[in-house]
């Protein structure tokens, strides 16, 4: 059973947080470099304590991760007029471009097994956030993620 905090929202259990992460497909990746915060939406897939996303090889997101791999990640779901659920994850992001990372990405995210040749032509980074901690809340009156 989730506990109430501040009389406004219920804390989610670990299982409830995982269900919301598995249910959603778009989240916000929070980055920081030299006191400049940056939040960017990403499509993702959650799998066994990790968040997988892909990225172009250039851009602000890549620059920030290369300089500071500590990140947060947020997903939320609106439920009716007043209900909501949210999970915030904290962890470390890595950017990989090796064939093994691309294979795992396609298997986890798309359920596909492309050839090494096809993967070698993929000009993108595979981003992996290793979750170290997470918190989740949902508004009283709303249901936790099912």
Automatic annotation (TrEMBL):
<dbReference type="Pfam" id="PF12900">
    <property type="entry name" value="Pyridox_ox_2"/>
</dbReference>
<protein>
    <recommendedName>
        <fullName>Pyridoxamine 5'-phosphate oxidase putative domain-containing protein</fullName>
    </recommendedName>
</protein>
<dbReference type="InterPro" id="IPR012349">
    <property type="entry name" value="Split_barrel_FMN-bd"/>
</dbReference>
<dbReference type="InterPro" id="IPR024747">
    <property type="entry name" value="Pyridox_Oxase-rel"/>
</dbReference>
């Amino acid at each position: 059973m989730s506990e109430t905090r501040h009389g406004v929202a219920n804390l989610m259990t670990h299982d409830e947080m995982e269900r919301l992460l598995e249910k959603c497909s778009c989240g916000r990746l929070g980055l920081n470099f030299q006191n400049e915060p940056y939040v960017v939406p990403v499509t993702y897939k959650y799998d066994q304590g990790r968040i997988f996303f892909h990225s172009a090889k250039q851009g602000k997101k890549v620059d920030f991760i290369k300089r500071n791999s500590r990140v947060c990640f947020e997903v939320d779901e609106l439920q009716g007029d007043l209900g909501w659920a949210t999970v915030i994850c904290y962890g470390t992001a890595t950017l990989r471009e090796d064939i093994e990372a691309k294979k795992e990405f396609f298997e986890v995210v798309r359920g596909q097994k492309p050839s090494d040749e096809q993967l070698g032509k993929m000009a993108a980074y595979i981003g992996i956030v290793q979750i170290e901690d997470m918190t989740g809340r949902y508004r009283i009156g709303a249901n936790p993620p099912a």
